[in-house]
């Protein structure tokens, strides 16, 4: 079998995917796959797109977007084989949704394009869709389970807040955070592993809630903290290496001193941006 000739467009990609899934001449690995086995790759590819954007690697972004597009084509091909829907149905569904959720562009509200009025249209449209659909659907239905746990906590809390289930102010959330920390310390003191895990989860959930009340995306904040930790730890490694020292031989005091020097080196940039941190 030869690859489809001509322009390399979405139609060619769909043809290639169909070839790979051909029962007689396709790829054995691709033929073994299912929605469940491909789903983790879909999540991974989305993260790789986000990573390329975060690093400003625009030369890599094209390829990562292609990998992500392949995931949509892959799932649509398997759905078509099962008689569920096809790729064209996927495109139709998203086109209709985008038009429906942008009444300020396509609908009667087109005259109300000012940014102050546009804000909230998307969430309001989603809420109307939920209300107009299955009456048994709950407020929290539709928050994807495959999201990173911190992002899902943020979205669950935001969804609940839309119907009034929320703390009155950030002070109340901060008090809850302190309460959860005290409960974690109590569980740890008693040496109860199951309780410790539960309390850690409650503490993280409360942290996400406080971030929401402060107008901060907790996933983005933690991602930035991870990047900062990696950057400073690499400084420790480089400094020790420059002195002919192996990090495995260094003591905690020596590593902490190098950490503080890395922190001090970043201080002017942090102060210029109004930032703080560890």
Architecture blueprint of SSEs:
Elements: H1 10-20, H2 28-32, H3 35-54, H4 58-81, H5 87-100, H6 103-106, H7 115-118, H8 121-132, H9 149-161, H10 170-190, H11 193-213, H12 218-242, H13 252-273
Helix pairs in contact: 1-4, 3-4, 9-11, 10-11, 12-13
Structure description:
The protein is mostly helical and 278 residues long. The chain has four domains: 10-94, Helix Hairpins; 103-132, no CATH class; 149-213, MazG-like (Helix Hairpins, Orthogonal Bundle), CATH 1.10.287.1080; 218-273, no CATH class. It has helices at residues 10-20, 28-32, 35-54, 58-81, 87-100, 103-106, 115-118, 121-132, 149-161, 170-190, 193-213, 218-242, 252-273. Helix 1 packs across helix 4 (58-81). The chain is extended and about 65 Å long.
The number of helical segments is 13
Q: End-to-end distance, in Å?
A: 58 Å
- The total tally of domains equals 4
* Average pLDDT: 87
Helical residue percent band: over 70%
Report Rg: 25 Å
Total count of strands: 0
CATH superfamily (homologous) name of the largest domain: MazG-like
Taken in chain order, the helices and strands follow as: HHHHHHHHHHHHH
